[in-house]
């Protein structure tokens, strides 16, 4: 190889190199001209150490992290979490897309996948959105007003029976009591009388195993071979067998009961296919997971606040007196509907303590949000997006004295949850995936508290409860000791 040749080939490389640079520059210029928005205005990022830093920040408690970052970064910011970008959208001004977007833009399937081993195959987050949507329709139909009316009758019987076992006076852990009453009621209304009357102990033990198999670690590694997951899987199989027998015997006998089990047995997909036994079981488990802890936690907080706020205690008692004078002691759906003061007391307990503290979606398309200060951010597809009922329900520009228990903030005239527009109150989520069990939950909690208010005088003897942030469904830490005395509601 002589000197001339090698100089020539060097020149060729130089030319190719120049051409490449020129092309890149031209491409950049063109793209900047025709796509001026290709420069993304990304949300600010939470400062954290690389790789595990975000996880550490998150594990300290997601709400602690939000409390620290919101004042610094505003209502939209991104956290890097185990090599995923999680973008938080806090407050009604920036969360409309979160709640309203179609499944093709923001989906639940990926982020709620960890429920699959618990709910079982073929239901909810294990199936395509088209099937899931139909299964949510089964829920909607099973929780219609005419059905709810029948469930209320079960709720009333269960509450009367349960509290008839309390003495003339005594001391109880209210949290434990309400948890148990709600399991009994859920068994009756959701799982059916076969379970409630004959299989209650077996089935509650199995549900306990399912429950204990859903740990914070299960969110990231749902199939990790640990004893809790093994027990979960065994329990899921045994529940399957139990329900298969019940369903078969109902179908054979041709009986029609008033419960969710029956509704799911009778549900049909659009193509005419009936639900399978395994789908019915899975949907029932999903219903219990959605409704059980959430409702029992909310009843406990409602009680704790009423027992510490004599002003609101006396207004709910007045309301009960008025209703008893009008309807007597009987409680049914329409009577519960008149308990507006009690409703606001529950709603306010739930504002301060929503049991689902973090809602998630997986984003499949770019979108833009505008904050109330006017800043615009582009959130790239591929991010996980999150919002937090526990944090957003206490925003001071929406709720006056947000840390104070003040049920009247929802009274006509103040309507603080409506004044700032939709998605200001998100204890039940909202929009496309808003809770389907909200009316059921209120009916249940009102049934319990109207019974307690009418029949007992109560006093909180332990300190006001703290929040148990470590639970998957965030509730009350420790016992809630209450001293009670049986008494008839003194009518005026
Ligand atoms: C105080 C009690 C309850 C609270 C605080 C609550 C809260 C919520 C929240 C925040 C969501 C939205 C989740 C998301 O957007 O990712 C939700 C969805 C849901 N809830 Fe509830 N819930 C309660 C009781 C119930 C009950 C009793 C049932 C059934 C009997 C139920 C059934 C459902 C269902 C089926 C969904 C899914 C709706 C969908 O994705 O389209 N919930 N709930
Ligand atoms: C997270 O976002 C940053 C900045 O936009 C980006 O560089 C990074 O690739 C993203 N990480 C993942 C895992 O998507």
TrEMBL record:
Pfam families: p450. It comes from the Eukaryota. Its EC number is 1.14.14.154. InterPro entries: CYP450_sterol_14alpha_dmase, Cyt_P450, Cyt_P450_CS, Cyt_P450_E_grp-IV, Cyt_P450_sf. The chain crosses the membrane at residues 13-35. One of its GO terms (biological process) is sterol biosynthetic process. It is found in: Membrane. Keywords: Heme, Iron, Lipid biosynthesis, Lipid metabolism, Membrane, Metal-binding, Methyltransferase, Monooxygenase, Oxidoreductase, Steroid biosynthesis, Steroid metabolism, Sterol biosynthesis, Sterol metabolism, Transferase, Transmembrane, Transmembrane helix. It is an enzyme of class 1 (oxidoreductase). Gene3D superfamilies: Cytochrome P450. Its cofactor is heme. GO terms for cellular component: membrane. It catalyses: a 14alpha-methyl steroid + 3 reduced [NADPH--hemoprotein reductase] + 3 O2 = a Delta(14) steroid + formate + 3 oxidized [NADPH--hemoprotein reductase] + 4 H2O + 4 H(+). Heme binds at residue 435. One of its GO terms (molecular function) is methyltransferase activity. It is a single-pass membrane protein. Belongs to the cytochrome P450 family. This is sterol 14alpha-demethylase. It comes from Salvia miltiorrhiza.
């Amino acid at each position: 190889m002589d000197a001339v040749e090698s100089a020539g080939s060097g020149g060729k490389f130089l030319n190719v190199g120049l051409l490449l640079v020129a092309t890149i520059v031209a491409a950049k210029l063109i793209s900047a001209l025709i796509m001026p928005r290709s420069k993304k205005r990304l949300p600010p990022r939470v400062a954290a150490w690389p790789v595990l830093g975000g996880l550490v920040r998150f594990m300290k408690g997601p709400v602690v992290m939000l409390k620290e970052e919101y004042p610094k970064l505003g209502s939209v910011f991104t956290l890097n979490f185990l090599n995923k970008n999680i973008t938080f959208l806090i407050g009604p001004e920036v969360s409309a897309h979160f709640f309203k977007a179609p499944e093709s833009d923001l989906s639940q399937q990926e982020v709620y996948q960890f429920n699959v081993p618990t709910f079982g195959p073929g239901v909810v987050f294990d199936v395509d959105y088209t099937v899931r949507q139909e299964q949510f329709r089964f829920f909607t139909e099973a929780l219609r007003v005419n059905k709810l009316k029948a469930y209320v009758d079960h709720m009333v019987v269960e509450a009367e029976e349960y509290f008839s076992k309390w003495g003339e006076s005594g001391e109880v852990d209210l949290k434990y009591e309400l948890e148990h009453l709600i399991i009994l009621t859920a068994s009756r209304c959701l799982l059916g009388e076969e379970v409630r009357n004959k299989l209650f102990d077996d089935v509650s033990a199995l549900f306990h195993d399912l429950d204990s198999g859903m740990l914070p670690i299960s969110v990231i590694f749902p199939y990790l071979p640990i004893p809790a997951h093994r027990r979960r899987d065994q329990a899921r199989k045994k529940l399957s067998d139990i329900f298969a027998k019940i369903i078969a015997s109902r179908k054979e006998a041709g009986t029609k009961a008033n419960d969710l089990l029956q509704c799911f047995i009778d549900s049909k997909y659009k193509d005419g296919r009936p639900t399978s036994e395994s789908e019915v079981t899975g949907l029932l488990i999903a219903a219990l997971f959605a409704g059980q802890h959430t409702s029992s936690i909310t009843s406990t907080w409602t009680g704790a606040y009423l027992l510490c706020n004599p002003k609101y205690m006396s207004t709910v008692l007045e309301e009960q007196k008025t209703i008893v004078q009008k309807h007597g002691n009987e409680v049914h759906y329409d009577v519960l509907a008149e308990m507006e003061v009690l409703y606001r007391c529950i709603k306010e307990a739930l504002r301060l303590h929503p049991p689902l503290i973090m809602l998630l979606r997986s984003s499949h398309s770019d979108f833009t949000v505008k904050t109330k200060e006017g800043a615009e951010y582009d959130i790239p597809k591929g991010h996980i997006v999150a919002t937090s009922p526990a944090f957003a329900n206490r925003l001071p520009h929406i709720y006056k004295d947000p840390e104070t228990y003040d049920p009247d903030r929802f009274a006509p005239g103040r309507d603080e949850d409506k004044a700032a527009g939709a998605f200001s109150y998100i204890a039940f989520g909202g929009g496309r995936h808003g809770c389907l069990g909200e009316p059921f939950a209120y009916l249940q909690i009102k049934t319990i508290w109207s019974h307690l208010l009418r029949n007992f005088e109560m006093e909180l003897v332990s300190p006001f409860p703290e929040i148990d942030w470590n639970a998957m469904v965030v509730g009350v830490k420790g016992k809630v000791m209450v001293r009670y005395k049986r008494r008839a509601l003194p009518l005026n």
